[in-house]
TrEMBL record:
Ranges of residues in domain DNA-directed DNA polymerase X: 15-330
Substrates-to-products reaction catalysed: DNA(n) + a 2'-deoxyribonucleoside 5'-triphosphate = DNA(n+1) + diphosphate
Gene name as annotated: polX
GO molecular function, one term: exonuclease activity
Keywords on record: DNA damage, DNA repair, DNA-directed DNA polymerase, Exonuclease, Hydrolase, Nuclease, Nucleotidyltransferase, Transferase
Keyword RNA-binding among UniProt keywords: no
Top-level taxon of origin: Bacteria
EC number: 2.7.7.7
Species classification: Bacteria, Pseudomonadati, Pseudomonadota, Gammaproteobacteria, Pseudomonadales
SUPFAM superfamilies, per database record: DNA polymerase beta, N-terminal domain-like (SSF47802), Nucleotidyltransferase (SSF81301), PHP domain-like (SSF89550), Sec63 N-terminal domain-like (SSF158702)
Protein name: DNA-directed DNA polymerase
Family annotation (Pfam families): DNA_pol_B_thumb (PF14791), HHH_5 (PF14520), HHH_8 (PF14716), PHP (PF02811)
Domain Polymerase/histidinol phosphatase N-terminal: 354-433
Signal peptide: none
InterPro entries xrefs: DNA-dir_DNA_pol_X, DNA_pol_lamdba_lyase_dom_sf, DNA_Pol_thumb_sf, DNA_pol_X_beta-like, HHH_MUS81, NT_sf, PHP_dom, PHP_phosphatase
């Protein structure tokens, strides 16, 4: 701020004290450090924060009275102007810009004890950790401990801090649930006293998140041994209640579990009942009542005689219906569709011919271009699109035009060597605030695929956010809208958006939407997948892989696609290479 006397100003409605000014300077320093900015610039903001915090006078009162700020060591003209801006507006434009450039979840990581900007940056660049959820998963996979500087004491403190932050949230992402569920299921299936073991509930329906595990054990309900054997599972942390046929417990990973012993004659009925959803079960029971029957967890009965119960499919057949896949059981039209023979033939993982969104270490990935290509080729895919971040996402080491050109040349050379896989040239280009794309058209024209993504300005009003994305989609070279709503499960809602208008615009424009298979995204959700299907908009089921192992995430995308009633023909990347290239040309 200039040191001459200024006219008195009215401070913001919420008074800005020295503590708030210092906090903003520290946040700016943290974000600059995460972007590997000039160390002298970072130090200037940290020193300014200490200086501001140590002053007895109120900067806000000085500015409000029109008095000049005192000359303070380390606070020159630029920083004085920022103090003035913070006092007058309650915020700082530089801080807002830096927050837009850094993935939203990284800011939350900065508040964890024992972890500063350098380590947050290291986690992001080496493990693609960009949120509490992804840090929790990296800790669970023991990947964090392998990083330089992350010893056992630090990783243990991080685990405790993350657990404390997430303890109030009683639902688990699918990989977290799987990590606890599958070893338990393997153990139960290995018991000699148990004939069969199946996980029901929301886990079987492949919901976005799972609150607990409902596990059915087929065994003799009169025999006490099956439950006793089950409760010897080593990873049980606490048994809350236990009887011969039912037990409630908690695993060491935190997951609550209900175990039930069910006789073979009722196992299918119990599986249907406990799979849910509640709404689907009510609709089925009403159908049974309309036919003069009674349906419960033990079977389907008429006049006290069991008509079905041993097999789950027998329940549906006795009610005049084909078996309904668990992913559809939400009472959203599946019973009527089954009755009329209109159930979709749901997509399978093997239907995918390739992946249209992945990163290498050229931006924020962890494997080389060659390593990603070889891993894709080993999976039997026909194609893999390389889509690094563009330059606007600086913390992800996004590519500028020159680096992208060099990568395109590298792709050409590697394609000459590959036998059964074709690498497609692409970019995950930032959609800027005004809807323009963060890369010149002349360069986008050289690409096979342009994946547009919103990584900033999440708080735009619905109309402006929708217009912004529609304008981006109108670009001649735009191909696919990545993670369309921007949601992060258990961390943030999607940005305000008229998704129906986006789907309609994609249909009119002839471009495509993404179903991002990252478990913390699963974006689009099942309802929006179904809307896109109804509009004839093809979806790219994309891993958004940052390492070769991330190609496995496609299974979660397929789960979501099935919940959205998608068939193989509804997925863009179920096409052969020739069919895909034809569709890509038509979209321009």
């Amino acid at each position: 701020m200039p040191r001459h006397r200024a006219a008195p100003v009215r401070p913001p409605a919420t008074a800005v004290d020295n503590q708030r000014i210092a906090q903003i300077f520290e946040e700016i320093a943290d974000l600059l450090e995460m972007e590997a900015a000039n160390p002298f610039r970072i130090r200037a903001y940290r020193n300014a924060a200490r200086t501001v915090r140590s002053q007895n006078l109120s900067f806000a009162e000085q500015i409000a009275s029109g008095s000049a700020l005192p000359k303070l060591a380390g606070i020159g003209h630029d920083l004085s102007e920022k103090i003035d801006e913070i006092v007058r507006t309650g915020d700082c434009a530089l801080l807002q810009r830096l927050q837009r450039e850094v993935p939203a979840g990284l800011g939350e990581l900065l508040h964890l004890p024992g972890i500063g900007p350098k380590r947050v940056r290291q986690l992001y660049q080496e493990l693609a950790v960009d949120s509490l959820t992804s840090l929790q998963q990296a800790l669970a996979d023991d990947r964090v401990r392998q990083l330089s500087g992350f010893g056992p004491r630090l990783t243990d403190r991080l685990q405790q801090a993350v657990s404390a932050k997430t303890s109030a949230e009683q639902r688990y992402l699918l990989p977290q649930a799987t990590a606890q569920a599958e070893p338990l299921l393997d153990y139960l299936r290995g018991l000699k006293t148990v004939e069969a073991a199946v996980i029901a509930g929301s886990y079987r329906r492949r919901r976005d998140t799972v609150g607990d595990l409902d596990i059915l054990l087929q065994a003799d309900p009169q025999d006490s041994r099956p439950m006793a054997d089950a409760l010897r599972y080593p990873a049980i942390e606490k048994v809350m209640a236990a009887g011969t046929t039912r037990a409630s417990l908690r695993l060491r990973g935190g997951m609550p579990v209900d175990l039930r012993i069910v006789a073979a004659a009722s196992f299918g009925a119990a599986l249907q009942y406990f799979t849910g959803s509640k709404a689907h079960g009510i609709a089925l029971r009403r159908r049974a009542q309309a036919q003069g029957c009674k349906l419960n967890e033990y079977g389907l009965y008429r006049n006290g005689k069991q008509l079905a119960g041993r097999q789950e499919a027998d329940i549906y057949q006795a009610l005049g219906l084909p078996w309904i896949p668990p992913e559809l059981r939400e009472d959203t039209g599946e019973i009527a569709a089954a009755e009329h023979g209109d159930l979709p033939r749901l997509i399978e993982l093997d239907d995918l011919r390739g992946d249209l969104h992945c990163h290498t270490r050229a931006s924020d990935g962890h494997n080389s271009l060659r390593e990603m290509a070889m891993a894709a080729q080993q999976r039997g895919w026909q194609y893999l699109a390389i889509t690094e971040h563009s330059r606007h996402l600086s913390i992800a080491h996004g590519l500028d035009a020159d680096r992208l050109r060099r990568q395109l040349d590298e792709i050409d050379r590697l394609n000459d060597e590959l036998q059964s896989l074709t690498l497609l040239k692409g970019i995950e280009v930032d959609i800027l605030a005004d809807g323009t794309l963060d890369m010149p058209d002349a360069l986008l024209a050289r690409l096979d695929i342009v994946v547009g993504a919103v990584h900033s300005h999440f708080k735009l009003p619905v109309q402006k956010q929708t217009q912004r994305i529609c304008r981006a989609m109108d670009s001649r070279y735009f191909t696919i809208l990545a993670h369309p709503t921007g949601r992060l499960l258990q961390e943030r809602e999607g940005y305000p958006l008229d998704i129906e208008a986006i789907i309609e615009h994609a249909q009119q424009r002839g471009c495509f939407l993404e179903l991002n298979a990252q478990p913390q995204r699963l974006d689009l959700n099942a309802h929006y997948c179904r809307l896109a299907k109804a509009q004839g908009v093809l979806l790219s089921i994309a891993s958004d892989a940052h390492r070769t192992a991330d190609f496995d995430l496609h299974s979660y995308g397929i789960d979501q696609a099935r919940r959205g009633w998608l068939e193989a023909g509804d997925a863009l990347n179920s096409r052969s290479l020739a069919q895909l290239l034809r569709l890509l040309r038509q979209s321009r």
